[in-house]
Amino acid sequence: MKKFTFGTPETFVPSKFCDGFDYRETDVKYPAGNFFFKTTPSGCVLEFPLEDDCRIWGFGLQLKQFNHRGRKLKMDVNADPATPNGESHAPVPFFVTNKGYGMYFDTARYAEFYCGKQKNPAFGWNRGTDAAALSEGGAADREEDLYAARREDSVWMSVRIPVAKGVDVYVIEGETAGEITAQYNMLAGGGPEVPEWGLGMLYRCYTGWDAEKIKSVASYFRENGIPCDIIGLEPGWHTHAYSCTYRWSDRYPDPDGFLGWMKEHGYHVNLWQHAFTHPDAPFHDAIAPYSGDWLVWGGLVPDFAVPEARKIFADYMREALVEHGVDGFKLDECDSSDNTGGWSFPLSAEFPSGLDGMQYHSLFGTLYIKTLTDALGERKTLGEVRNLGALAASYPYVLYSDLYDHRDFIRGVVNSGFSGLLWAPEFRSAHSKEECVRRIQAVVFSVQCLVNAWNYDGIPWVVHECEDEVKELFRIREGLIPMLKDAFEVYRKTGKPPVRALCMDYTADPATWDVDDEYLFCADLLVAPIAAGGGDERDVYLPVSDEWEDYFTGEPVGNGKIRVKTAGIPVYRRKK
Ligand code: GAL
Asked: Packing angle between helix 177-187 and helix 467-494, nearest 10 degrees?
C-alpha cells in the first residue's frame, strides 16, 4: 500500500479521527504516472485511466447497485438513499477492482466519482478514446442494438472533491479483491472486538410498550424456548425523544428494578437514542458551548470532535445508564435526510472544532460511537448506528435503515463487506407468513440477528402463525455463533470481514463479478437467500474452483450454477 499526496490535503480527514489508523508503506506496481491532478475554484480533481474490463466495487453501504463501472457516485450522507447515485447512510470513498488494486481517498467531503468517462484525445491524453476503434453501430433497427453500440472501454475515472485543495490517496494492491479490502480494513486498525452476547438475537420492542409489557414479552421468549440475548428499547423510554432528554419516562417508574430484572433473566439492554440534545436533558447547558450553530428538532448538535463535548456526553451516559446495567446503544439519526423532510443541520453548519456541516455529516457516526465507547469503558458491546464512513472497520456497530426492500437489503449485506462496514438486513414487519420467514432467514445468516419490531404492537411470528419455523431459525442462529465469533476474530487480526461478496474470495472467476445476491459467510459458508416475494426457487452460483456441500444435510452439490427449490434458505459449505 502506498500513499500518494496530491496538492494540500485538508486537516479534518477520516484518518485524523481513526484511533487505530495504521499506515505501513510498501511499494506498489501502480504507475504514479497514471494520475492527473488539478485544483479548481471549487476544490480539486484527480483523474486516471481504467482498464477496459475493470469492475468497480465498494463505496460503502450501497443498497441499489453492485458494480459501479460507468456510473457517477457522490459520497453524500443520506438516511433514505433511494437511487444508485452513491448517497448512503454510510458512503465510503474507497473502491476495489478486479485488477489487483483499490484506492482509498482520505476525505470527509462529498467526493464525486465518475467511474468511467471518455476523455478527448485531442487534449493530449496518452490513453483515451480511439476514434478509429468506434464500434460499427450503423443505423440500428432495435433499441437494444442502438445502445449496444455505445462504447464503454477506453475510459477514465474522474474524482472531484469539493472544497479541498488536495487529497491523500492510498493505493492498495493484492491478488484478490478480498486481500485488498482486508488491507484497507487493517489501515483502519482491523475489525472490532465483539462480545459473544452481541451475536445473539436482539429484539427491539414496540415503541408504545411500558416496562411491564416488555417484561412479559421477555418472559414469553424464555418460556417458549425462543433464544434472545438483547432487549432493545425504542423511543418511549425517554421523557422526550425528538430531541432526546436521556431521562427515563414514567413508563419506567423503577429503571433500576427493570434493568435488574432483565439481567436476572439473562438479557442485555440496548437503548435507542440520538445525539440531538433536548433542553430538558440534564447536561444541555453544559454541552451548549460545545455545540454547532444549528438545532435539530429543537435540540443541540454536540460537537463530538471537541473533547469537552465528548466528556460531558460520555460521563452522563456512563453515570446515568451504563453503571446501572445498560450495555448497548442504538445511535439513530446521525445521518441526514434529503428525501424525508430534510431534517438535520445544513452542510454549511459551523462547529467549534472547526469542522463544517459536510465534514461533520461524514464523521458524525464515527465520532458519536467514540463518545459512547468512552461511556462504556471496559464493557464490550455490539451496537447499532445509522451513519458510518471511511476507516470504520474497528467499531463494533452495525448499520441499519428505514428502507425495507428485501432484495436491496440482501445487496446491502453483499456490499457492506467491501468497505469495512457491518450491516443488518433487519426484520421489521411482514405482510404474510412467507415474508416473515424469508426475512428472518436472511437475518439469521448475517452479522447481527436483528428483529427491529419498534413499530409492531405484537410478536410478528405469533401474528403470522409461524412460531415453529422462526424458533427453528433462531436455534440455527445459536449454532452459528461460535463460527461468527471466530470470523470476527479473523476480521480483527487480518481485516478479512465475516461477510464477503463472492468476487472478494474468487476474483479470478468472472462468473462471480456480478453476483450481488449471494455471499460468503464466516470462513467457508456460502449463503444464497431467497428474497421475500421471490417464490421458492432460485439459481445459485457455486464457484467452480471448489467443491460444495449442502450446509444442512451435508449432501455434496458439486459446483457451478445450480437451480434450487426450497422453502428454506440455501446455504452451502466449501469442502476442505
Ligand atoms: C428511526 C429508526 C428506526 C426506529 C425509529 C423510532 O429513525 O431508523 O429503526 O428506531 O426511528 O422512532
From this structure: 70
**Percent with pLDDT over 90 in the chain:** 91
Closest CA to 532 of 428, 402, 400, 436: 436
Domain 2-119+154-187: homologous superfamily in CATH:
glycosyl hydrolase (family 31) (2.60.40.1760)
Intrachain domains 196-320+336-375+413-494 and 501-574 with the same fold: no
Q: Which of 296, 332, 336, 400 to mutate to test the pocket of ligand 1 (most atoms within 8 A of CB)?
A: 332
Q: Which of 203, 206, 209, 234 to mutate to test the pocket of ligand 1 (most atoms within 8 A of CB)?
A: 234
Q: Which residues of the chain are modeled with pLDDT < 50?
A: 128-133
How many angstroms does the Cα of residue 385 sit away from the middle of ligand 1? 11
pLDDT in the model for residue 129: 44
Q: By three-state DSSP, how is residue 55 classified?
A: coil
* Ligand 1 atom at minimum distance from 402 CA: 8
Cα–Cα distance measured from residue 281 to residue 576, given in angstroms and rounded to the nearest whole number = 56
332 C-alpha vs ligand 1 centroid, how far in Å? 7
Condensed to tens digits (0 to 9), the pLDDT of residues 167-195 reads 999 999 999 999 999 999 999 999 999 99
Q: Please tell me the residue having the least CA distance from ligand 1 atom 8.
A: 402
**Nearest ligand 1 atom to alpha carbon 386:** 8
Q: How many residues does the chain have?
A: 576
Is the separation of the CB atoms in 468 and 460 below 8 Å? no
Residue 386's CB: how many other CB atoms inside 10 A? 24
What is the distance between the alpha carbons of residues 355 and 352, in angstroms, rounded to a whole number?
7
Residue spans of the domains in the chain: they are 2-119+154-187, 196-320+336-375+413-494, 501-574
Ligand 1 atom nearest 272 alpha carbon: 10
In 184-308, the DSSP E strands lie at 201-204, 230-233, 268-273
Return the CATH number of the domain spanning residue range 196-320+336-375+413-494. Answer: 3.20.20.80
Class of domain 501-574: mainly beta
Using the structure block, give the residue that is written with the C-alpha cell 436472511.
Answer: 442
Q: Tens digits of per-residue pLDDT, 387-434? A: 999 999 999 999 999 999 999 999 999 999 999 999 999 999 999 999
CA 398–ligand 1 middle distance (angstroms): 14
The protein residue with its alpha carbon nearest to ligand 1, atom 4, reads 454
Which pLDDT tens digit goes with each residue over 200-221? 999 999 999 999 999 999 999 9
Note whether 209 and 236 are within 8 A (CB).
Answer: yes
Looking from the CA of residue 241, the nearest atom of ligand 1 is 12
